[in-house]
Prior knowledge:
The protein is mainly α. It has helices at about 1-5, 10-40, 45-75, 80-115, 120-125, 130-150, 175-210, 230-260, 270-290, 295-305, 325-330, 335-375; strands at about 155-160, 165-170.
Amino acid sequence: MENELSSRSLLVTVLEASFLIVLNVASLLGNTLVCISVYRNTRLRTTTNVYIVALAISDLLSAIFVMPLAAGVLISGRWPFGEALCQMHAFFSLFVVYISPVTMGFTAANRYVRMCKSEQQYKRFFSKRKSRIALASAWAFVASYICIMRLAGLQGFYFHPGYAACLNKHLNNSARVIHYFVVIGLFFVLPLAITIFSYRKVLKKIQEHNMVSVRTLQPQHGETTVSRHEIRLSRSLFAVVFAFVLCWIPSWIITILIRFNITSMMPRNVQLLCAFSVNLSNTINPFIYAGMNPLFRREFRRIICWKSGKKTTLVQDPLPTQHKNQARFSPRSENVITNQQAAESADFECRQMSNDENGQKKNEALRGGYNNVDAE
């Protein structure tokens, strides 16, 4: 396999390396835009976007620590970076592969509770603080598992030329069984089951609301309020999950076939395609947000065009209380606020002009009185 990597033609080398470099640059820029957008715009600092930022950070880890070294391998045809960087590369490669499905599962559960349960239940289970604690705990558990398996001598890290990356190697059969029970069960099957269940319920909820009303969705008989913004957000996250499944399931299937020796030989091109599909999953999420979420799309445009150097804050809402939630989540809320302020300004100018006309009439009446007195 290593000889096959080093003996590629120049055309294959250029194509493989160029494709991975393009993915690397796009992933780095796109996921950085996601993080900056949430930092700049307070309207994007929601509980759900905590999970979106977590996904962006995991993708950034891949774009910083995994893809550049893999591109170097594809260019040189070998691992030229030494043993220490191979250990680091293997850790982050495994961490990104394990933590991405887990974070997807948390995101799907958040959408399920938000769309299908009451507002009180959502706030009880998914406050920003609890969401950060849950994500930090999951990330710490995954990182600890990788380190423990390596330090306990149950796994070793080595260069795998088929994937153009450093990965783990099981040192005995018992370690293999423990590893795949944890990884496949906790890091793949369980998050995937939660994701499928959650989005099935969410899509059913959206269909029920669409049947009731197309223009606006209001709670009925104690149901939770679902705004247009929440529906758009759920659809964009469903698109992220759908793309994730398309990219990752083939990779998991091929990896299981190789690791359990179900197939004796897997072509290098197929293994490299697995790595590319995982990297593609880390790249396309920001483009899905930009295409389906107007708030992210607007903030991306502001950052790219350098329209404002200040963070965007919430504008004081002049609308009545019963319309505040709809205005806050509507993509046209800024226009509503601007029109309201313009109307108030025009009304003030009309009153000012009326006052000026009344004052002018009074002055003319007084001057007329004085003239009559002088004539007498």
